[in-house]
Design goal:
This protein has 677 residues and is α+β, with helices and mostly antiparallel strands. Among the domains are: 2-170, GAF domain (Beta-Lactamase, 2-Layer Sandwich), CATH 3.30.450.40; 173-288, 2-Layer Sandwich (Beta-Lactamase); 545-676, Rossmann fold. Helix content is 44%, strand content 22%. It is built from 21 helices and 24 strands. Helix 11 (290-343) packs antiparallel against helix 12 and helix 13 packs parallel to helix 14 (423-440). It is elongated, with a radius of gyration of 46 Å.
Length: 677
């Protein structure tokens, strides 16, 4: 008998699914049927069931005349009374047999389409649950099914159920591993069947999309996680199974999806087709790209910030060299104009000498201000007069305003406006405001005005403001003007880091910076810092002690600078010996009057002032206590000087220097000597 052969074949088979084509052919041949189908049924809680095809056989003599078995979706089950009754009968194990002409509704239409005349179907159970149905169709004649035929189909269905149970037992460990992998996966995993319905939805998918697994199983993929404006371009499950390809299958691509709240976000999708018991399933692994894209944006911002810092560092190195070259001749001009003022008997000459000295000192301050703004250094807060800070920023930026026909109106608070601040950093903030105002006024017709004001707030807090009558800041972007790299300027005019850095600097000073609208038009940027009590008079303001210094050694490769310093020292009763280079303490000091004080340039070919000072510390510590470093780039030298222990740091004379600066250094040396007595 055919049933006996089929039962033996299933028991001996290692994989029952591989035998189904042969089994259906044997079964249909024995029962004189033209088609046999094994359906897989899946319960959908509260929604009926979904039917898919596990295996089927069609008599090859009929070729393409017989349509493929129909896949039933839940929407059909819910709307067709006959299908609902059939589903209940199948759960109870009842036989479903008859003629197509006796049917109605969906089944009659479907069976007629498939040329089915008579049908016979029995339930397949595995582990006590309805697994599916086994059906045979006569597509040639109507017939009455005999008891023997029904018994044969029952026996084969029982044998298939036994084979499924054995297979499930053998694969239990694999199923546990698969389920654990699905549960533990960090990526969202969605599996859809031939109809496009979701049949698997792991916890990561629940978290990503905001759907509960029990709520979304059985629903169509297009109606849930595909954005509405993308749905037309997607291939439905039925279209894909009929041969129309889906371009995303087998590829890894970036696209977008939407969650339960309707939020659309970017994802990376890998879609793979799987064949399980002749079923075609699509396995989708989905990775949320929002964190990745945010990280890439942050890396881009940091890369841009690094690029800007590198540009600033390069600018700092360039200006350091420029300042050194400028400060040397400026030191000569300041010193010689000071001496000319001292020795000139003609009042007119004295006035002219004073003008030359003042102009040279102003040049020196401008160079120092430029250098301080591009040579970033750690903030070193000290008692600072904001009036001096704002004036320094004006010296750097005033020429650009004047050359553009912009009027600068200043209003400074009376007396010292003291704050604990890093003068260089706050000068950078003020200069940035002034430059921004100049840019804002570039396209303004008529009178163009920048108002600069320093003030004391209601609680005595010192502050300053920069105001212009330009177009102002549009209301839509006011909340973003202090963000990094946000700029409204044309390409090449601004980087978008000025206001961001300014805000950061002021906040490090525990101060506030804000924007105010000016009517009828314009913008005002305001800075306010914490107030401090006025400190004691600076040491340089007290009367200088008698230095007791008579002989000086000047080490400088710039003869004009050295000669100018020597001339100033001679005014103070100190004779000097100049050497253009240093070899060693023994060589330089032997055979000459021992110096009471040493002035050394910081940067010289072959050696540096720090190296000379270190040698004197080791060999002549008493002389090292009367050592002065002369430099035109104090900011660049800070790191080297601050690397020394605080008690061992030498005095600094900054170029260009005046008689007052030299006198201040001598006074500090004398004060230190008095403390060491």
């Amino acid at each position: 008998m055919a049933a006996v052969r089929i039962v033996r074949q299933l028991r001996e088979a290692g994989d029952w699914q591989r035998e189904m084509d042969s089994i259906l052919e044997t079964l249909c041949g024995a029962m004189d049927c033209q088609r046999g189908i094994l359906f897989r049924l899946r319960e959908l809680p509260g929604q009926g069931f979904a039917q898919s095809v596990a295996a089927y056989w069609i008599d090859p003599r009929f070729g393409g005349e017989l349509a493929s078995p129909t896949v039933i979706m839940q929407s059909v089950v819910n709307s067709d009374p006959l299908l609902e009754r059939l589903a209940e009968d199948e759960r109870q194990g009842k036989i479903f047999a008859g003629h197509t002409r006796d049917l109605e509704g969906f089944l009659r239409t479907d069976f007629e389409k498939q040329n089915i005349k008579s049908f016979l179907s029995v339930s397949v159970f595995a582990h006590g649950h309805l697994w599916g149905t086994l059906a045979v169709n006569d597509c040639v004649n109507e017939r009455e099914w005999t008891d023997e035929e029904e018994a044969t189909l029952h026996i084969v269905a029982l044998a298939i159920g036994d084979a499924i149970e054995r297979s499930l037992s053998d694969t239990h460990a694999s199923e546990v591993i698969r389920r654990t992998m699905l549960q533990a996966s960090l990526d969202a995993i969605i599996v859809i069947d031939e109809t496009g319905s979701i049949i698997e939805f792991n916890p990561a998918a629940e978290k990503m999309f905001g759907y509960q697994r029990s709520d979304i199983l059985g629903k169509d993929l297009l109606d849930t996680v595909v954005p509405e404006y993308y749905r037309k371009g997607y291939v439905s499950g039925a279209e894909y199974m009929s041969g129309r390809g889906a371009p995303m299958v087998g590829q890894r691509l970036e696209t977008v999806t939407q969650n339960a709240a309707g939020e659309v976000f970017p994802i990376e999708l890998t879609a793979t087709e799987m064949r399980v018991a002749d079923r075609r399933l699509i396995f989708g692994s989905i990775r949320d790209l929002r964190d990745k894209l945010r990280a890439e944006e942050e890396i881009g911002r940091q890369r841009e910030k690094l690029h800007q810092n590198e540009k600033m560092a390069a600018m700092g190195s360039l200006l350091a060299g420029v300042s050194h070259e400028l400060n040397n001749p400026l030191a000569v001009v300041v010193a010689q104009s000071t001496l000319l003022h001292e020795f000139a008997s003609d009042p007119q000459t004295k006035v002219r000498a004073e003008k030359v000295r003042a102009a040279a000192e102003r040049c020196g301050r401008i160079v120092k201000s430029f250098l301080s703004m591009v040579r970033l250094h750690p903030a070193t807060q000290a008692e600072t007069d904001l009036n001096h800070v704002v004036r320094a920023a004006l010296e750097v930026t005033a020429y650009g305003a004047r050359s553009s026909g912009i009027i600068i109106d200043t209003d400074f608070a009376s007396g010292p406006l003291l704050a604990m601040a890093d003068a260089d950093h706050v000068t950078q903030v003020a200069a940035n405001f002034l430059i921004n105002s100049q840019h804002a006024l570039a396209g303004v017709a008529g009178d163009r005005l920048i108002k600069v004001r320093t003030f004391r707030g209601d609680r005595g807090n010192p502050g300053f403001s920069v105001e212009d009558n330009g177009p102002g800041v549009p209301e839509a972007i006011r909340s973003r003007i202090f963000e990094s790299y946000f700029t409204t300027k044309p390409v090449g005019v601004g980087t978008g880091i000025g206001l961001s850095i300014s805000k950061s600097i002021i906040e490090r000073h525990k101060g506030n910076v804000w924007f105010e609208e000016v009517l009828p038009r314009g913008a005002r940027f305001v800075v306010q810092l914490p107030a401090i009590a006025a400190g004691a008079a600076a040491a340089g303001d007290s009367p200088a002690r008698s230095s007791g210094l008579r002989h000086a050694l000047i080490i400088d490769d710039e003869p004009d600078v050295a000669a100018s310093l020597s001339d100033i020292l001679e005014l103070m009763g100190i004779k000097s010996r100049i050497v253009p280079a240093w070899t060693s303490a023994a060589t330089t000091l032997t055979g000459h009057m021992p110096p009471d004080i040493v002035f050394s340039d910081l940067r010289m070919p072959g050696t540096s002032g720090i190296a000379i000072y270190s040698e004197l510390l080791a060999e002549k510590p008493d002389l090292a206590r009367r050592f002065v470093l002369v430099t035109g780039d104090l900011i660049g030298a800070k790191a080297e000087i601050e690397a020394l222990p605080a008690p061992q740091r030498p005095q600094i004379l900054e170029k260009p220097f005046s008689t007052l600066d030299v006198r201040g250094v001598l006074s500090a040396i004398a004060d230190q000597a008095a403390l060491n007595v």
